[in-house]
């Protein structure tokens, strides 16, 4: 075979989902190649217990890590439940599972106990996977690995292209995955998302090892796997977009009442809250405090497309907030559980402000030296808390102990303690 024929054959292999070449772990310098088809084709979607049992058996018998991904319907449905789960493992191939038809995947989770899961941006998918009975004992997060290795772009498409030399089609990432039946192009996209995830994992492991960061990454992955489910957010209505415009307590009460009413309706209808009433409309009503339905209908977000019954339910929420006694009105701002905002430090505690400035500069310089984002080297909140209330005696032991208390991993403590001791002692 001539060189030209060899190149053409390799290109054909790649574009039809063939196995990547052995040197795929190196950074690719040639033109990236579109990956158009999964190498075994698009598998049928698992929608019954018999098919699920077959998948469980196949994946239990497979070898090596398992690639896992989940598709949600953010912006379309209420909550963050999974509407498709994709897996791939050596010896088992790719599986696409419908968790609406098969809502209990604990049997699959048990079959994969002791197997390393490979996910991209694991913290995004783990909550919805946990809801259906799938929780990894150990994992490898390819997005986080990319951050620690210093890659400037860590989206899955960018990583697969830059590291493996393939282009993933990303046109269906924001579609409504609750659609049934799922169109074939969407299923192809979903299957391709796990097609090369283990290959990417292997390449990133080599790169992290080359940089001396593999143990750091393992500590981060273990922390993600061991983290408990997140606590429900306190006063989630306070995160309404545009809240900075709302100043008065009575107006805050209107935001709260409208937000809670919208949330109940959205949950009952299983639609995204933004499709029931926009944040902008909530803030508009809070600022205007409309006296009646007619006044409400004249505000942005409550136009002619909204029926009388809908207008009445929103006006009723406004009226409930307006009728509250002063003692029941929400306080402006949220209770502060940590240091005040850094912008206030210069007035409240100039010495703390100086410590924070020195610490931030030191962490930034170290992060640049280690070629990773500052927030992955050490959490900014940890630095703020340490600078606001430093140990009485500042040395490596006390600073290291404080960092451990704030949840820093051993590798982080080892790296940042010297520069923080210097900054706090200046």
From TrEMBL:
The lineage of its organism: Bacteria, Bacillati, Actinomycetota, Actinomycetes, Kitasatosporales. InterPro entries: 3'-5'_exonuclease_dom, Exo_C, HRDC-like_sf, HRDC_dom, HRDC_dom_sf, RNase_D-like, RNaseH-like_sf, RNaseH_sf. SMART domains: 35EXOc, HRDC. Coiled coil: none annotated. Signal peptide: none annotated. It comes from Streptomyces sp. 900105755. Residues 248-328 form the HRDC domain. Gene3D superfamilies: HRDC domain (1.10.150.80), Ribonuclease H-like superfamily/Ribonuclease H (3.30.420.10). Residues 1-39 are annotated as: Disordered. Residues 1-18 have a biased composition (Polar residues). This is Ribonuclease D. CDD domains: RNaseD_exo.
